[in-house]
Write a structure and sequence with these properties.
The structure is a single chain. With about 210 residues, the chain is mostly helical. The chain folds into two domains: about 5-20 and about 135-210, Helix-hairpin-Helix base-excision DNA repair enzymes (C-terminal) (Endonuclease Iii, domain 2, Orthogonal Bundle), CATH 1.10.1670.10; about 30-130, Hypothetical protein, domain 2 (Endonuclease III, domain 1), CATH 1.10.340.30. The protein has helices at about 5-15, 30-40, 45-55, 60-65, 70-75, 85-100, 110, 120-130, 140-150, 155-165, 175-185, 205-210. The longest helix has 18 residues, at about 85-100.
Length: about 210
């Protein structure tokens, strides 16, 4: 079976398993999603949502963030870890958005990557969720699950993104990554994966290697 066909089969199985799969970070605007994603580095989405529920109403727009001292944001996000760096990046990126992009979150990879605290994972999420573009969000779950099931054999995020671009249909790419995240949390865990009950059991490379 060709890898594209295999990826499509995996996608269809996971669509049935997780019919409500979506981005788990709560936001009401492109800017809020950008900031929530910056805050999510090395942190669970649930914890980020608890912080942003209180934080977001205190800022009206990108200009509010741009004109705020990082230490004010530090106090609000301290429970998330790496809070000093995250606060600095939020203020810096918002200043650039205000000054260079007329207050609008950029809609292309090149410009998004000029923002402090924004890597390809964050940029892909913004492009997919906000602008409806093909997106390949390679987080820890996507790295682990895609290698285990045999969609990619590499471990570097850039390599995995390139492989996903090659095998996924562009219109399903963003949704595929959300499905994989759900699957990584429920079945394909880093420690003690639930292989015996996994809906991908008969498709998974890990399953056949262990036989």
């Amino acid at each position: 079976m060709k890898l594209r066909e295999f990826a499509q089969e995996v996608y269809e199985i996971l669509c049935k398993e997780y019919p409500n799969a979506k981005c788990m970070l709560n936001s009401k605007s492109p800017l809020e999603l950008l900031i929530a994603t910056q805050l999510s580095a090395q942190c669970r989405d649930e914890r980020v949502n608890k912080v942003t529920r209180i934080m977001f109403p205190k800022f009206r727009d990108v200009y509010d963030y741009a004109n705020t001292e990082p230490r004010k944001i530090e106090k609000m996000i301290k429970s998330l870890g790496l809070y000093k760096v995250k606060a600095k990046n939020i203020v810096s990126s918002c200043k650039r958005i205000a000054e260079v992009y007329n207050g609008q979150v950029p809609d292309n990879m090149e410009d998004l990557l000029t923002l402090d605290g924004v890597g390809r994972k964050t940029a892909n999420l913004i492009l997919g969720e906000v602008y409806g573009q093909p997106a390949y969000v390679v987080d820890t779950h996507v790295k682990r699950v895609c290698k285990r099931i045999g969609i990619t054999y590499g471990t570097a995020p850039d390599y995995i993104e390139k492989e996903l671009r090659r095998v996924l249909k562009p219109e399903t790419s963003n949704h595929f990554c959300h499905l994989i995240v759900n699957h990584g949390r429920k079945y394909c865990k880093a420690i003690n994966p639930l292989c015996m009950t996994c809906p991908l059991n008969q498709k998974c490379l890990m399953h056949f290697e262990e036989r």
